[in-house]
Amino acid sequence: MEEKDFELLIMLDKTKNITHAAEKLYISQSSLSKRIATIEKELGVQLLVRTRTGILFTPSGEEVLKTAETVTEQLQRMREKIALSKHILTGHLKAGISLNYATFRLADTLSKYHDKYSQVQMHIVTGDSRDLYRDLVKGDVDLGILRGDFPWHGRKILLATEPVCAIKGLQSKNKSFNEIPYIGRKTDLAFDRDISKWMRENHVEKANNESYVDNITTCVKMVENSSGWAVVPEICLDDFKGIKEPLKFKNGQVFERPTYLMFPETVVTLPQIRTFVQFVVQENHKEVPEWLTTL
User: Fold this and answer.
1) HTH lysR-type domain location, by residue (predicted)?
2) How far apart (Å, rounded) are the C-alpha atoms in residues 198 and 156?
3) Residue 293 burial (10 A CB sphere; 0-12, 13-18, 19+)
4) Is residue 243 a contact partner of residue 170, using CB atoms and an 8 Å limit?
5) pTM value surpassing 0.90
6) 44: three-class secondary structure by DSSP
7) How far is it, in rounded angstroms, from Cα 243 to Cα 165?
8) Is the CATH number of domain 161-257 3.90.780.10?
9) Which residues pair with 182 in a beta bridge?
10) CA dihedral of residues 131, 261, 106, 21 (deg, nearest 10)
11) Which of 13, 107, 271, 292 is the most exposed place for a label (fewest CB within 10 A)?
């Protein structure tokens, strides 16, 4: 068996599905099946049983899996110790990052980190903050950079806040929001509630011919083309050609969108993750917390 076979077995145990495991490993399903057959032939035992709902490990397979997990952990510790002795940062890092933040703010930071610490194996998952939050809670990612305020018992660092704006196209300059269709988009429940609160306080209603899109880029482009108006965070408006109005609630509070860096406290004992956290905080012009520098 090779080291990559250990990763294969661990992923099969995690997904309980050959198709999903193949997707996670970036190989074809047929290649994965062939490799399983090769391992079974090499060891002389059956490792897996295929069922209608997925796969199950045989008793022999469970023993091999247990060994694979132990060896993988020991190899990783060995590499980290050797790298530290050479003053080279290495190891694995898996981060879940809000698609909007990754697109509009973090791409340059990720490139800088990779250039500086090229031996760290980074796996970046982008997507909706709600889904990434679930991944973080389940432990599927080491840390998350999420938009919005989610309950969290681990460490949570505020990276940025930006105003939320109502936007409309130049052709709608002299029209009120009630006169043009509203363009809604997929977002988290808390942000949607705040939008509804601002609308109620300002007596703004959604027109009967409102539209709904699944991403913020399409939403902004539709507004720019005078298809309606929308409420979006300023992060996506760097190149917007239209009218934007920063919003406030009735009590004078600014309508803002926060971005947090969140992670379990235990993960920053790993040098590659601790360095990544410090790097991201500094790139966002924030002061690194004292507790993070004394680990």
Assistant:
1) 1-58
2) 27
3) exposed
4) yes
5) no
6) coil
7) 9
8) no
9) 229
10) -40
11) 107
